């Protein structure tokens, strides 16, 4: 019987029957003829049945469907629809439910699109981002943050920030952002592997429409390159000052000696004049190399590209370095592949060869060897300069292309080096869209590989 009453129509039919029977019991004392009573009851039953059938078909059943449709919509199924073709209030309800479903569907799609766009932006930004609610629980960490600190989102989301963010600067930044309700900025360093990185962290409080604090966002910006540039700038100023001060001091000292009757001793005077000339020449080389670097770093710098023959240009340079090798008791050899033609800036190409050979000979002791080899691959011209010199420590290799950086400062100054040779080579290679690589071993020698594109 329980299953029977689950069907609304059967329930109402039985209900009408009970009402009819009760009506008959009430009318029995007033109606003597049984046939009349039965006829009245039957008519009453039919009228009630037809009336409630109409109510059920046009209102109860559609409203039941409407309720089910609204339940589906409430659960997030915005494709659910309720169709009723009548022009009564149920038909109007049908129209409004379907309109609501369409609006919610459009809003859901729009919200998802915005959410996906925001997630894409957050995950692809160069800054680490951590979202924290007003109770201190982490709700979001992006990919950049995870690349800095490792692990996965589940190791952070849902946890209190002071349980999973172990750096003290995080705690201070978050606490001050909550306490003072304003942006807080700090800097800190962090090791990733064996490398030291510098970061700037900004804590930004989040407020709702009623200006109540709802949480905070941490933005972690990698400022390692800025720190390196700042250090390089300081080193550059110090090095330029030192490089200029040394020859200027020498020139001034010997000039004062000559002024104080130093010309009476002709041999000494000639020696002093020679030193003054060499020091002024050293300053001129330094200034010219600085101007070369400055020119290449300008945004409007343009290469003068020509089709050149590498062999012909190198043959113009080789005799100078053969003489230099003889003076320093070095063995110098070269091998250049025939018909190496490609597009490049002629003067800059020669500068690469000159600087690399000069550097190799300056850092190679007597009886050592220096070799130049120029070959081609399918895409590149390969220039290799190798020596059996003092070599370079592995920890020094990342700095080898910095301005004024010297592997052996005493040797470099003794040979007249400015510390700008490899920096210039690196810039020339970069503006040609090439690449440069160095492998070296202390006391065994160095190999420098330069790859310049043929096209």
UniProtKB/TrEMBL annotation:
Keywords: ATP-binding, Kinase, Membrane, Nucleotide-binding, Phosphoprotein, Transferase, Transmembrane, Transmembrane helix, Two-component regulatory system. The lineage of its organism: Bacteria, Bacillati, Bacillota, Bacilli, Bacillales. Residues 114-158 form the PAS domain. SMART domains: HATPase_c (SM00387), HisKA (SM00388), PAS (SM00091). It catalyses: ATP + protein L-histidine = ADP + protein N-phospho-L-histidine. Pfam families: HATPase_c (PF02518), HisKA (PF00512), PAS_9 (PF13426). CDD domains: HAMP, HATPase, HisKA, PAS. Its main location: membrane. The chain crosses the membrane at residues 12-30, 36-56. GO terms for molecular function: ATP binding; phosphoprotein phosphatase activity; phosphorelay sensor kinase activity. Its EC number is 2.7.13.3. This is histidine kinase. It is an enzyme of class 2 (transferase). It is found in: Cell membrane. Residues 239-455 form the Histidine kinase domain. It is a multi-pass membrane protein. NCBIfam families: PnpS, sensory_box. It comes from Oceanobacillus halophilus. GO terms for biological process: cellular response to phosphate starvation. One of its GO terms (cellular component) is plasma membrane.
């Amino acid at each position: 019987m329980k299953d029977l009453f689950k069907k609304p129509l059967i329930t109402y039919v039985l209900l009408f029957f009970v009402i009819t029977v009760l009506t008959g019991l009430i009318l029995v004392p007033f109606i003597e003829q049984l046939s009349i009573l039965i006829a009245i009851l039957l008519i009453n039953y039919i009228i009630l049945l037809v009336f409630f059938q109409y109510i059920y078909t046009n209102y109860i059943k559609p409203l039941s469907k409407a309720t089910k449709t609204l339940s589906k919509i409430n659960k997030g199924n915005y494709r659910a629809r309720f169709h009723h073709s009548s022009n009564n209030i149920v038909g109007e309800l049908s129209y409004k439910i379907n309109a609501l479903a369409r609006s919610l569907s459009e809003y859901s799609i729009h919200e998802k699109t915005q959410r996906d766009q925001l997630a894409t932006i957050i995950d692809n930004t160069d800054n680490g981002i951590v979202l924290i609610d007003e109770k201190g629980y982490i709700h979001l960490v992006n990919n950049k943050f995870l690349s800095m600190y490792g692990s996965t989102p589940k190791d952070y989301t849902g946890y209190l920030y002071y349980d999973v963010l172990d750096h003290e600067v995080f705690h201070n930044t978050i606490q001050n952002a909550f306490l003072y309700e304003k942006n807080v900025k700090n800097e800190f360093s962090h090791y990733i592997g064996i490398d030291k990185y510098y970061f700037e962290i900004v804590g930004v409080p989040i407020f709702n429409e009623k200006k109540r604090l709802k949480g905070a966002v941490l933005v972690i910006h990698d400022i390692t390159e800025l720190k390196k540039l700042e250090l390089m700038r300081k080193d550059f100023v110090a090095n330029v000052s030192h490089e200029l001060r040394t020859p200027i001091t020498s020139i001034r000292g010997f000039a004062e000696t000559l002024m104080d009757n130093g010309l009476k001793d002709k041999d000494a005077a000639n020696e002093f004049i020679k030193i003054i000339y060499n020091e002024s020449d050293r300053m001129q080389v330094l200034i010219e190399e600085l101007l070369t670097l400055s020119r290449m770093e300008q945004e409007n710098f343009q290469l003068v590209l020509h089709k050149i023959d590498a062999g012909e240009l190198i043959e113009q340079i080789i005799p100078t370095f053969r003489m230099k090798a003889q003076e320093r008791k070095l063995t110098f050899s070269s091998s250049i592949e025939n018909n190496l033609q490609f597009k490049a800036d002629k003067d800059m190409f020669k500068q690469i060869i000159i600087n690399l050979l000069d550097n190799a000979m300056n850092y190679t002791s007597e009886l050592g060897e220096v070799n130049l080899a120029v070959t081609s691959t399918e895409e590149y011209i390969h220039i290799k300069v190798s020596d059996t010199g003092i070599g370079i420590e592995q920890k020094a290799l990342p700095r080898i292309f910095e301005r004024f950086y010297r592997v052996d400062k005493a040797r470099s100054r003794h040979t007249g080096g400015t510390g700008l040779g490899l920096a210039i080579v690196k810039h020339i290679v970069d503006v040609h869209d090439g690449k440069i690589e160095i492998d070296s071993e202390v006391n065994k020698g160095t190999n420098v590989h330069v790859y310049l594109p043929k096209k």
